[in-house]
UniProtKB/TrEMBL annotation:
The keyword Iron applies. Its cofactor is Fe(2+). Keywords: Dioxygenase, Iron, Oxidoreductase. It comes from Marinifilum caeruleilacunae. InterPro entries: HGLS. This is 2-oxoadipate dioxygenase/decarboxylase.
């Protein structure tokens, strides 16, 4: 039942980030079944568009809140939702805590958020809408980065799925994160090495890795510039003390996954 929603999200994501489709096809061509462990979204903690607002679409579809996370150094809150009745991907939503930034940073973001009517934010399809605010400024993008790469990314890209995640548990031949990473590197995809290529360990029941975001051309007020968009993630889960596969997220892993969208030269 969630298939249509995830198909739409996949279309928007792969249209913008062709490497995700290419990697998906590489695994399919190896005879692998590509299943999504989770998808992730980013937002600001402004009450017009915070986690609760983005979660609405999923709550309506039968999802429930399961986990809560905090990232002090990145000034983020996050939650994850699961669908109790269906084999649907987990949904991870984070939000930037604006009050923890400089006055100037807050002013820039507030101006952008106020540049459109509040009705835009109550659209149930907000999660597909991307940058609802029109052309960004490259100078401001670079300025926001001094305080938050996440904030700068969100200022430009707006509301869209930030990554899909391949479940390594569902792969046959590529049955470890080491094998997956090697396969990606052999095919020329640069990996996020922040905190090491593999985030987590069997001891915390979750290992993750991700590609670096695709660099795409974005039209700014000042002209067209190459900047990072979205990435593809890979996750393997292990049984916890209860004997069931661990289903949550690990803040220390996630903290480094966020860095996949950091600005870098093309
Ligand atoms: C989310 C980073 C965290 C995970 O699986 O722990 C994450 C983001 O980059 O928006 O995806
Ligand atoms: Ni993720």
């Amino acid at each position: 039942m969630q298939q249509q929603l995830f198909n739409e999200l996949w279309k928007g994501y792969t249209d913008q980030n062709p490497s995700a489709q290419a990697i998906h096809d590489l695994f399919s061509n190896e005879g692998e079944l590509v299943i999504n462990d989770h998808v992730a979204f980013r937002t600001f903690d402004d009450p017009r568009m915070n986690i609760q607002v983005l979660a609405k679409k999923f709550l309506k579809a039968g999802y429930e809140y399961v986990g809560e996370y905090k990232f002090e150094d990145k000034h983020l809150n996050a939650v994850h939702l699961e669908h109790p009745g269906e084999d649907a991907p987990r949904v991870f939503i984070s939000e930037l805590i604006l009050s923890e930034f400089s006055d100037e940073f807050q002013k820039i973001i507030k101006n952008r958020l106020n540049s459109i009517g509040n009705a835009y934010y109550s659209d149930p399809d907000l999660i597909h809408k991307g940058s609802v605010w029109g052309k960004p400024s490259y100078e401001i993008y670079q300025k926001l980065r001094e305080e938050s790469e996440y904030g700068a990314w969100l200022y430009v890209h707006g509301f869209r799925v930030n990554h899909f995640t391949v479940s390594i548990n569902a792969l046959k031949k590529y049955d470890s994160i080491e094998k997956v990473n090697q396969f990606l590197k052999d095919n020329g995809y640069p990996m996020n090495t922040s905190g090491g290529e593999i985030k987590g360990s069997p001891e915390v029941y979750l290992q993750q890795s991700s590609t670096l975001s695709d660099i795409i051309k974005v039209e700014f007020e000042e002209g067209v510039y190459d900047i990072p968009a979205c990435f593809y993630e890979f996750a393997i889960r292990y049984p916890d003390e209860s004997g069931n596969l661990f289903s949550g997220f690990i803040a220390a892993n996630a903290n480094k996954i966020f860095d996949s969208t950091n600005y870098r030269e093309a």
